[in-house]
Design a protein that fits this description.
The protein has 346 residues and is mainly α. 72% of the residues lie in helices and 0% in strands. The chain contains 15 helices and no strands. Helix 4 packs parallel to helix 6 and helix 5 packs antiparallel against helix 11.
Length: 346
Amino acid sequence: GSLVMMAINKDPVKAYKTMFEFGFGRMDSVAIILFKATPLIFSGLAVAVGFRVGLFNIGVEGQYFIGALFASIAGFSLKGLPVFIHLPLVLLAGMAGGVVWSLLPVILKTKRGVHEVITTIMMNYIAYSLVHYFVADVFLDPGQQLAPGLGSPRVRMPLIADSARMPTLHGFLALFGVEMPKHVYLNWFLPLGLAAAVAFYYLIWRTPTGYEIRAVGHNATAAETAGIKSEKVVLKAFLMSGAVAGLVGLSNLLAYIGYLDIDFPKGIGFTGIAVALLGKNHPVGIVLAALLFGFLDRGAEGVQVFEGIPMDTIVILQGVMILSIVVAAEIMGRYIKRQSRKEGVA
């Protein structure tokens, strides 16, 4: 990473110092890192569920877009509901959207042997276009009012009702003397993401279903021989992955933006693949990897403004870090295996 910065005539020591000072110098900046990490936790978990059963779910990107579409429709179309009913319904709608969009690839996988990488990649781009169609045509908000001379209305769906918005953590943090400015949108999706990580751990390592998922992921043929119906397990796990993927975009949708538009954030699903790989598909690793990417994203803003380093350099740095950590982990894993064999022989 330092060599990349030196190649564009930038001081890497100064750049890293700026990243840390900008990222951790103020409490509101730390909160922004946590806010950026929140959707990555869900995205990494969604990818990891697929990995655990031996599938590569590249479709998290499209699944969270459809999840955001379903959640948005439920958010503005249901009227007069109290928040304790409306908000859970919107979350369930988001999860349902992710499940719907993961259903076709897993059926093609289990029934016809079609590789999930191909189908999920294609489904991503169908999701983009489908969401844009619903946003710009079917559910385009006609009620936007702009003052003369302020340009054209945004291409967006109607505003989500207040009863469907996710509260921020401002009030909770204020109980501990931490005051957050209004421009920080850290919200209750962060504790929900951490709870999902705990649930993921419990499911995979403490339940019969998790045992079946791991068995099929290690060797589907052996699992079948042992009486496990691998097709059913794959279907169940992939739909779980889609359900979690449906929650990825909701932190931005329900706590920050408040409506679905054609500029809704993209790429979180693809970043989730890197988060899952970096975290070795373990919930603790995924949370830490998501925090790392949140820090790099926030730090990139600092070095871009104060050091004049292009944002693309940070993207390169992320790739270098992923390759370095994955390769180092593989080397250490092989070394440990060799040492175990030697000790066994001795």
